[in-house]
Amino acid sequence: MLETELVLFKWKQYESEIILLTVSWYLKYSLSYRNLVEMMEERGLYMAHTTIMRWVHQFGPELDKRIRPFLKPTNDSYRTDETYVKVKGQWKYLYRAVDSKGNTIDFMLSENRDAHAARRFFKKAMTSPHNQAPRVITVDKNPAYPTAVQQLKDEKAMNQETLLRQQKYLNNIIEQDHRFIKKIIKPMLGFKSFSTAEKTIAGIEVMHMIKKGQVECFHSSVLSTVKFINKLFGLTA
Questions:
Q1: Residue 121 included in any domain
Q2: Are residues 89 and 116 in the same domain?
Q3: Which of 23, 30, 60, 194 is the most exposed place for a label (fewest CB within 10 A)?
Q4: Residue 104 structural domain
Q5: Cβ 137 vs Cβ 164: under 8 Å
Q6: Does residue 28 sit in the same domain as residue 59?
Q7: Which runs of E-coded beta strand occur in 51-155?
Q8: 189: Cβ–Cβ under 8 A, 6 or more apart, which residues?
Q9: What is the CATH number of the domain that holds 124?
Q10: Is the pTM higher than 0.85?
């Protein structure tokens, strides 16, 4: 195990493989923390739900960071939309984009739904190594999108030839893709803070990308998923 991995798992009561398995189950399936506590007790492992919660908050964003170099390239047709996520009893906005084949381009949780947020989201998507610059961006009728796209073109951060289409029916693919994320988030009954929502959603999105087969040289079986995640953290069989 590399030195950075040793730091990540330092002072943890359980083996690193158990921690990563527990985190991946929470992020992949519609489970509450207490569901996982019961599942682990059946395997002779006793842990508090708050312990699992801390693991998720630590390793969710770490999974997102480590998986990026292994993602297959997406195509240049962005299908972009926002969905709602409850944080501290208030609705926040999860910006998401997939390509024309349904592969995840990127995601970003935002306090606001405006041109500034849309601009930040597009900049994030275009700087991720697995994405191409957009040839066409399909969005709904949200008036913030044309403003954001024009700002990026003015800054020369986006190609002038990029076409913006505001045609809702063409975005069915992203609206369908929201369903998986919402299904996983539902048992969580809302997040306690914006920061923990960001960290958890990052991990959920990673598991969704793995499930969709977006990882290079990887077959999406349950066993290979476990092996791949362990490999991301420098753990070998």
A1: yes
A2: yes
A3: 30
A4: 77-180
A5: yes
A6: yes
A7: 77-87, 90-98, 104-110, 136-139
A8: none
A9: 3.30.420.10
A10: yes
Q: Kindly state whether residue 186 falls inside one of the protein's structural domains.
A: no
**Overall size of the chain counted in residues:** 237
Specify whether 208 is located in the same domain as 176: no
| Phi and psi, residue 71, nearest 5° | -80, 140
Give, for all 237 residues of the chain, the pLDDT tens digit: 554 565 677 657 788 999 999 999 999 999 999 999 999 999 999 999 999 999 999 999 999 999 999 999 999 999 999 999 999 999 999 999 999 999 999 999 999 999 999 999 999 999 999 999 999 999 999 999 999 999 999 999 999 999 999 987 778 899 999 999 999 998 887 899 999 999 999 999 999 999 999 998 666 566 688 888 988 888 865
**What's the structural domain count of the chain?**
2
| Residues 154 and 97 placed together within one structural domain of the fold | yes
- Radius of gyration for the chain, computed over Cα atoms and rounded to the nearest angstrom: 19
The CA distance from 40 to 47, in Å, is 8
The whole-angstrom separation of Cα 172 and Cα 79 is: 9
